[in-house]
TrEMBL record:
The keyword Cell membrane does not apply. GO terms for molecular function: cholesterol binding. It catalyses: cholesterol(in) = cholesterol(out). Residues 641-806 form the SSD domain. This is NPC1 like intracellular cholesterol transporter 1. Belongs to the patched family. InterPro entries: HMGCR/SNAP/NPC1-like_SSD (IPR053958), NPC1_MLD (IPR053956), NPC1_N (IPR032190), SSD (IPR000731). One of its GO terms (cellular component) is endomembrane system. It is a multi-pass membrane protein. The gene is NPC1L1.
Length: 1266
């Protein structure tokens, strides 16, 4: 046969004895050695038997195959088989690129089997060995000469071959201490010829000789200069060119992604700023032209008046021209009639209602208490949402549905418990390594600290506690993430990533030392050499030192350097500034009993870490977190800040109680005080909030901590304003002759209740419409706030009116407030008490504000306000000051080199069993250059734009590699009593394949597949894991999500074009953070939608309740819009980001703005003063004083108290933002709006018109017909 013919030919050229040819001539046709002489006694612990020299050529060395009868070689069939075994492990990682694998085998085939062997190699070391009693002289070292052109081209073909499972390069595992970054052709071959690497059977000294150099080359030796294949070339056996992922030359021309759009500029200046300035100048110019034209028109009218052409023109009290006149009855429009009819209807209705309630206060109070209690009983069923996912991600949102899909078909994203440890100030040291040269070790990479970390790690690993849920002792193995033995893990199966794992958590391995000789130099090698090797070759089962330790973790997986150390530049792992310790737990559903077990383990983890942090002997400075920490800290700070909120409410209560009093004389202080009325007002607010929460608890709408914090504050602001308006109006009003106290209360209520209804109804409808939001937190807040505001108005019209009636009865009887049986002799003054604020605003503030010059200044300054905003909520803002999580986020951003893993998940409907289907997803040889994994690879080439750092690993590529006959290594025992079970890193047998075509084994070992159990070929879901870059801000997280979705959509369209693919097939990206940051993709449009919905009812309700007064409604709406817009502008200036929490506060801002604006607008519309300015002055003095006392001065003291809260979220989004809202509301409502009304308010005074009509025609009774 052909094999016999090969052997015959070999014997004709070589000595047919198992010996080395010591005096072989360096001539073509001569062998340097032949046959095998047994095991190399100088090599121990090799991964493969180190057989040294003393089937079919076309399979192992096709480059030497000259055809049957013509092939000659210097090796036997036995040697050929050993060579095939030696090449097997290396080919396993190189076969993704056939030309690379071919080049790799090419040289070893030439060295071992070339018929011209002596022309390229020179034996340098031999030794006698005894095999079966026969002494043979064996080769244990030789020199191999090859040209640099061949070596360089071979290296170039292999240097970019990837290992998809790690995202790294195969060359990194084959270049020893240099890794992929520093590997060269010489270093690559040096590693191949080093028998200590566990693969080479003997030492080979590769000599790379440049073209034309002969110095130092033995006579007759010619450096081998065969043809090395380029990675973009087919092999002689017909194998395809390497894929783009493994060979840059094979990549199609892919245009670079467009750079980020250049900022819009005009003349080198921010274009938007220029446009804003131009627009501002146009507005100011238009306004000045309006003022000038108005002045000239009035001046001309003044001249006409002197000639007798005008009617009733003159000057008002402020020196402003009076141009209005009383309208003749026939000039009153239908709108005017409707306006007055609406006011008369509302006024008479509330007057009758107020009189009725004031006449039966106790009955009303009892009925109000019963109704409130009925609603509040629902609190027994209240459900408080604390899960951030449920709080901020809608169930039907894309990210939420994708998360549910992922968690349904795969396990939920594992729970992370992590420590990041540093040793600041600790000096580093230089280590002169025998193998790796001089290395700089930072202070944290020290043996004593690694041992200390290992001690702490073991203490945490050994956590045990009694679990009531399991009814037994529980430990880490009950909840840990054990990827290679998930069904019945032991402690060593649990995924724990740390630096000690490079030593399999063994103190003995850390302490191991051995003398080693390299290139004639003998030095001691220790843990530092092993560490350097492992961080550059984390997949290695044995290092290249004489320590011969594995780099794999004890749970059987590699520990990539970015999971063990942090804070290094590029690949300078020895200079890392931090050690990282990570425990990964399974993430169980909340209704699973093991979820509570995981929470308890994490609490024990936190207890140990916190105790360790306080221990005096702790050498580390570190930060830490558990998966439960974020939620725990939010809940903790909420509980700790409750007293701050209580103090805030107490300050507001004290202010209301004091400010509502009349204080006509010292002797009547206890009579005129309104302490109980203020307390009643606070109780009304509290009861409205309780009723709202109880009602929604009845119908199953959950509450949240934000509702508990914001809704009472909002309702208090609204309620306090109405209380002040009502009480101050009552105090300023004089009882008419013969009028009963109850009738007076009813009359006063008839005057102010329409304004209270206008604001309350606007706010309530505003919030109900705000519930259309897709954000669960915003939606629930809007629902709770809407009903609370509505209930507050109802209780004010009932319970508070009744309380005021009882208090008025007490005050009329001169009885003290807190001691009702005690009376004072001093009688009340007959003149109504206006207090201090009303006269001051009437005499000083309003005249100055409405002076002609002041009005122009106010409008121009208002138009000059800037608007800027940014979007985002960084998660550390949710933490209180002093929280350990703040320190953790600081460490995370400083020391982590790689971001969160992200999965590209495929749904059902794609045929992975077809060749086209596999080619569309894989990245190895023969795959589509625009496949799923290849497109992700392209994205990682632009990390600054794509936010992708490490390309996706692919189970499809692993499966293809398994199908390759040349790849026979895996991590399952193939023989013996443990056959089929996991093989730990310490074992070194040749193992069988991981992919065993049996349904049980696929389900057990391949976590990235989810398939139909009845038909393994139907995949319901698969996933491909990549890594983001290190993301540190909400802007980066949001951009990463957006880019990942664009990439996944592009992949989806490509894969749908494959024949047989369902059109509903989809690829989507998923990582644990997407559900939180998805809101920021649409938060601007979402915010505009919600705020617009809130603004709409303020216009509609205002118009309706003012009798279709469109102008007043428009001015009211314009001012509220300006308050909202200015709030967003100040947010940027004060560092308040625009996010979901800010959106809730902006919705609140609309509600509070209604209080500042709508009362003033209605007061202006109802004024009977003859001019715009006089009506604005009256509204500012009367209603403005009540708004200032009721809204501004009620909110401000409570807001200031919130500045002392611990939570940054409260300090920023409650203190800062509410302070901004209140100050801007006050500025617009009490400064800008009166000026705006004085210019553009309704020119016809409805009451004056109708009174003129009634006076001239005695048609007062006809108002009802109108």
């Amino acid at each position: 046969n052909s094999q016999q013919q090969i052997v015959i030919k070999l014997r004709s050229y070589c000595v047919c004895l198992p010996q080395v040819v010591l005096e072989a001539r360096h001539e073509p046709g001569y062998c340097a050695f032949y046959e095998e002489c047994g095991r190399n006694p100088t090599v121990v612990g090799s991964l493969l038997p180190p057989i040294i020299p003393c089937l079919n050529y076309s399979r192992v060395c096709p480059m030497l195959d000259r055809g049957e009868g013509s092939t000659t070689a210097c090796c036997s069939i036995k040697q050929l088989k050993s060579l095939e075994m030696s090449l097997m492990l290396s080919k396993a990682v190189l076969m993704r690129c056939p030309s690379c694998a071919d080049n790799f085998a090419h040289l070893h085939c030439i060295n071992t089997c070339s018929p011209d062997q002596t022309t390229t190699i020179n034996v340098t070391r031999t030794m006698n060995i005894t095999t079966l009693g026969i002494v043979k002289e064996a080769v244990v070292g030789y020199q191999a000469y090859l040209s640099t052109s061949f070596a360089d081209k071979s290296f170039e073909s292999c240097k970019n071959v990837r290992i998809p499972a790690t995202g790294g390069y195969a060359i990194a595992t084959m270049c020893g201490r240099y890794g992929s970054a520093l590997c060269t052709a010489q270093r690559w071959y040096d590693f191949q010829g080093d028998s200590s690497n566990g693969l080479a059977p003997l030492d080979i000294d590769f000599r790379l000789i440049p073209e034309g150099v002969t110095e130092g080359i033995p006579d007759g030796v010619v450096p081998y200069a065969g043809r090395a294949l380029g990675c973009n070339e087919m092999t002689p056996t017909g194998a395809e060119v390497c894929s783009c992922q493994d060979c840059q030359a094979s990549c199609p021309v892919v245009p670079s992604p467009p750079p980020p759009a250049e900022p819009f500029t005009i003349g080198g200046v921010d274009g938007y700023l220029v446009l804003c300035v131009i627009f501002l100048c146009v507005l100011i110019l238009a306004f000045l032209l309006f003022v000038l034209s108005t002045y000239l028109l009035r001046k001309e009218e003044g001249k006409d008046s002197e000639k007798g052409k005008g009617k009733r023109k003159g000057m008002d009290k402020n020196g402003n021209n009076v141009s209005e006149r009383l309208i003749e009855p026939w000039e009153v429009t239908c709108t005017d009639k409707n306006s007055l009819a609406t006011q008369e209807f509302l006024g008479s209705g509330f007057r009758a209602w107020g009189t009725l309630v004031a006449s039966h206060p106790l009955k009303v109070l009892l009925a109000s208490a019963v109704v409130t209690a009925a609603f509040a009983t629902g609190l027994m069923h209240i459900e408080l949402t604390t899960d951030p996912v449920q709080l901020w991600s809608a169930p039907n949102s894309r990210a939420r549905m994708e998360k549910d899909f992922h968690d349904k078909h795969f396990d939920p994203f594992f729970r992370t418990n992590q420590m990041i440890l540093t040793a600041p100030g600790r000096p580093g040291h230089f280590y002169d390594s025998l193998l790796f040269g001089k290395q700089n070790f930072s202070g944290i990479i020290a043996k004593d600290l690694i041992l200390e970390l290992l001690k702490l790690q073991r203490k945490i690993q050994n956590i045990e506690f009694w679990s009531n849920d399991l009814n037994r002792m529980a430990s880490l193995k009950d909840v840990c993430f054990a990827p290679l033995n998930p069904s019945n893990p032991s402690l060593t199966d649990c995924a724990v990533n740390s630096l000690p794992q490079y030593f399999q958590n063994s103190v003995a391995n850390l302490n191991a030392k051995v003398n080693m000789t390299e290139l004639g130099v003998t030095k001691e090698v220790d843990w530092r050499d092993h560490f350097i090797y492992c961080v550059n070759s984390p997949l290695s089962f044995k290092d290249i030192t004489d320590l011969q330790l594995s780099c794999m973790a004890d749970y059987g997986a590699p520990v990539f350097p970015f999971l063990a150390v942090g804070g290094y530049e590029k690949e300078g792992y020895t200079t890392a500034e931090a050690l990282i310790l990570t425990f990964s737990l399974n993430n169980y559903p909340r209704d699973n009993i093991k979820f509570k077990v995981a929470l308890e383990w994490e609490q024990r983890f936190l207890d140990i870490v916190q105790e360790y942090q306080k221990s005096p002997g702790n050498p580390f400075t570190f930060a830490y977190m558990a998966e439960r920490s974020l939620e725990d800290e939010i809940n903790r700070t909420t509980a700790e800040d409750i007293p701050i909120f209580m103090i805030s409410y107490a300050v507001i209560f004290v202010y209301i109680a004091v400010a509502l009093g009349e204080y006509t004389s010292f002797s009547r202080i206890l009579v005129d005080s309104k302490f109980l009325v203020g307390l009643g007002g606070i109780l009304v607010v509290g009861c409205s909030v309780l009723a709202s929460m109880g009602f929604y608890a009845w119908i199953g709408i959950p509450s949240s901590l934000i509702i508990l914090q914001v809704v009472p504050f909002l309702v208090l602001a609204v309620g306090a304003d109405n209380i002040f308006i009502f009480v101050l109006e009552y105090q300023r009003d004089a009882r008419r002759p013969g009028e009963k106290r109850e009738e007076r209360i009813g009359r006063v209520l008839g005057n102010v209740a329409p304004s209270m209804l206008l604001c309350s109804l606007s706010e309530s409808v505003c919030f109900f419409l705000g519930a259309l939001s897709t954000m669960p937190a915003v939606k629930s807040f809007a629902l709770y706030a809407a009903l609370a505001v509505l209930m507050d108005f109802v209780l004010q019209m009932t319970a508070f009116v009744a309380l005021l009636s009882l208090d008025a009865r007490r005050q009329d009887g001169n009885r003290c407030e807190l001691a009702c049986c005690v009376t004072v002799k001093t009688t009340a003054p007959t003149k109504p008490n206006e207090g201090f604020l009303l006269p001051a605003m009437r005499k000083y503030y309003a005249p100055v504000l409405l002076h002609p010059v002041t009005r122009v200044i106010v409008v121009n300054k208002r138009l000059s306000f800037d608007l800027l905003y940014i979007v985002g909520l960084d998660q550390e803002l949710a933490m209180p000051q002093g929280s350990y999580m703040l320190e953790y986020f600081k460490y995370l951003y400083a020391y982590f080199e790689v971001g969160v893993p992200t999965y590209f998940v495929t749904t059902k409907g794609f045929n992975f069993t077809s060749i086209a289907g596999m080619n569309a997803t894989c990245s190895s040889v023969g795959c589509d250059p625009f496949s799923l994994t290849q497109k992700i690879q392209y994205a990682t080439e632009y990390p600054d734009l794509s936010y992708m750092a490490i390309p996706a690993n692919s189970w499809v590529d692993d499966f293809i590699d398994w199908l390759n006959p040349g790849s026979k290594c895996c991590r399952l025992y193939s023989i013996g009593p443990n056959k089929g079970k996991f093989c730990p890193a310490s074992e070194c047998e040749t193992l069988s394949s991981l992919f065993v075509m049996h349904e049980y084994n696929i389900k057990k070992h391949v976590s990235n597949l989810m398939y139909n159990v009845t038909c393994v070929s139907v995949l319901l879901a698969t996933r491909f894991m990549a890594y983001h870059t290190a993301l540190t801000t909400s802007k980066e997280f949001t951009a990463a999500l957006k880019i990942a979705r664009e990439l996944a959509h592009n992949i989806t369209l490509s894969m749908r074009s494959i024949p047989g693919t369902s059109q509903d097939f989809e690829v989507f990206p998923y990582t644990v953070t997407y559900v939180f940051y998805e809101q920021y993709l649409t938060i601007v449009s979402e915010g505009l939608f919600n705020i617009s919905l809130c603004l709409l009812p303020t216009f509609v309700v205002c118009c309706l309740l003012l009798g279709m007064d469109l102008r007043s409604g428009a001015l009211n709406l314009l001012t509220i819009i300006m308050i909202t817009v200015d709030t967003v502008g100040v947010m940027t200036l004060w560092g308040i980001d625009y996010n979901a929490v800010a959106l809730i506060n902006l919705v609140t801002a609309v509600g509070i703005s209604v209080e500042f604006v709508s009362h003033m607008t209605r007061s202006f519309a109802m004024s009977i003063q003859p001019t715009h300015v006089e009506r604005a002055k009256e509204a500012t003095a009367t209603m403005g004083s009540a708004v200032f006392a009721g809204v501004a001065m009620t909110n401000l003291p409570g807001i200031v108290v919130l500045a002392f809260a611990k939570a940054q979220l409260i300090q920023i989004f409650f203190f800062r933002l509410n302070l901004v809202i209140t100050l801007l509301g006050m500025a617009h409502g009490l400064i800008f709006l009166p000026v705006l009304l004085s210019y553009f308010g309704e020119s016809v005074c409805v009451r004056a018109c109708v009174r003129a009509w009634a006076r001239r025609q005695s048609l007062r009774n006809s108002w009802i017909k109108w």
